[in-house]
Amino acid sequence: MDGEVILLDAYASMFGMRLRIALAEKGVKYEYREENLPKKSPFLFQMNPIHKKVPVLIHNGKPICESLIALQYIDEVWHDKNPLLPSDPYKRAQARLWADFVDQKVHILGRKIWSAKGEEQEAAKKEFIEALKVLEGELGEKPYFGGEEFGYVDVALIPFYSWFHAYETCGNFKIGTQCPKFVAWAKRCMQRESVSKSLADPEKVYDFVLILKKHFGVE
Amino acid sequence: MAEEVKLFRTWSSPYALRIVWALKLKGIEYETIFEDLTNKSPSLLQYNPTHGKVPVLVRDGKPVCESLVILEYVDETWKHNPLLPQDPYEKSMARFWANFGDDKLMKSIWQLFIAHEKDQDVAAVAALENLKIVEEQLKGKKFFHGETIGYLDLAFGWIANLVSILEEIMSLKLVDGERFPHLSSWIQHFIDAPVIRDCWPPRDKMIIKFQVMRENYLAAATPK
């Protein structure tokens, strides 16, 4: 049986969305617990004392932190349904590298778009589009990054689509017109129930970004 | 059929050592290509066009980058003498601590290494806190996974060598036996292990290299 599965998360967290999608793909029943970010609960500090961040997957009382680590854990424990990582070691390595690219580029640049101003923001916008174009190149003519099947890199990346509205509004630019292939891929992913039910509403993400901006003292 | 395995690396990189040890533990034969990062070879740029970083492992013409990703690739390709635990939870913990080692511990030790004297106290607090966290993980264990060397030992291997080099340059002892008995004991077991001990880069060369690096950083940093 699945055992007791708890997901400690925050609605707008793109990292939490990764795990929501994976658990849905695997048909795992779990308890969702919302953290009221930017405030953090004592339970979160207890479950993730090193990084104090969401999401945390708690399986039979044992916490697994860091979304890509938890994503691999979910794939390994519930390996018989909708595998996310390929079985070939070389392809697995490539998938891991691309997921890391998403964290290093899409996430960090996206954050700069809403939190920086002036030249720093302009540079982040430009590099963000460049990163999406690199991803478009990697996607090529495939329906998904995983090939014919929705996979690990798709799960790692698609949550950021729900943040595009916030990036566009804060950065005063349009992403879709510059990266139509990316948007086509995103819409394809959104047709999966696991994705459409897991992704946050872009307006609510924008509201959350406004709270973050206030919290961090960004104008 | 013999497969062709190549490792592109620099002589000094602690990340490359992880792969050297892993391949040795698995008994895999391979060709080493030493790279000068100021003058990268066309082969390296062909295999790692995005970053041109080392190490890169190339097997039958297919490149894998990023040392921790390479470690998992090695472990999954040659399944004997497993490096990672089999249990998914234990595996997740290994990955978590390896990331901590690179993202938090190494960074904080590096920050201390390149800190101006006036910033050293604050930088030392962070480095010591992170070392303490690793110390906790070693309680009651010879190596990170138990009795034999595995993934996490390779991931943290740099502590057993590079740290003492940085300490010598800084004239500052971080990992002392009194504050970190488990870590000190692990270092001794690790450096004594046959598969590990013959791979270290020449110490005197390392000291010169990192001394120069430190001087460059201190000169470049704008004092407040």
From TrEMBL, chain A:
EC number(s) stated in the UniProt entry for this protein: 2.5.1.18
Subcellular localization: Cytoplasm, Cytosol
Entry's Gene Ontology molecular function annotations: glutathione transferase activity
Residue span, GST C-terminal domain: 88-208
GO biological process entries: glutathione metabolic process
GO cellular component: cytosol
Reactions catalysed, as given in the entry: RX + glutathione = an S-substituted glutathione + a halide anion + H(+)
Keyword Transferase applies: yes
Domain GST N-terminal: 3-82
Chief localization: cytoplasm
Pfam families attached to this UniProt entry: GST_C_2, GST_N
Signal peptide interval: none
InterPro entries: Glutathione-S-Trfase_C-like, Glutathione-S-Trfase_C_sf, Glutathione_S-Trfase, Glutathione_S-Trfase_N, GST_C_Tau, Omega/Tau-like, Thioredoxin-like_sf
Role played: Is involved in the conjugation of reduced glutathione to a wide number of exogenous and endogenous hydrophobic electrophiles.
UniProt family annotation: Belongs to the GST superfamily.
UniProt-recorded name of the protein: Glutathione S-transferase
Source organism (scientific name): Coffea canephora (Robusta coffee)
UniProtKB/TrEMBL annotation, chain B:
Enzyme Commission numbers on file: 2.5.1.18
UniProt catalytic activity: RX + glutathione = an S-substituted glutathione + a halide anion + H(+)
Domain of life: Eukaryota
Gene Ontology biological-process annotations: glutathione metabolic process
Keyword Transferase: yes
GO cellular component, one term: cytoplasm
PANTHER family linked: GLUTATHIONE S-TRANSFERASE, GST, SUPERFAMILY, GST DOMAIN CONTAINING (PTHR11260), GLUTATHIONE TRANSFERASE (PTHR11260:SF762)
Protein family: Belongs to the GST superfamily. HSP26 family.
Name listed for the protein in its UniProt record: Probable glutathione S-transferase
Source species of the chain: Coffea canephora
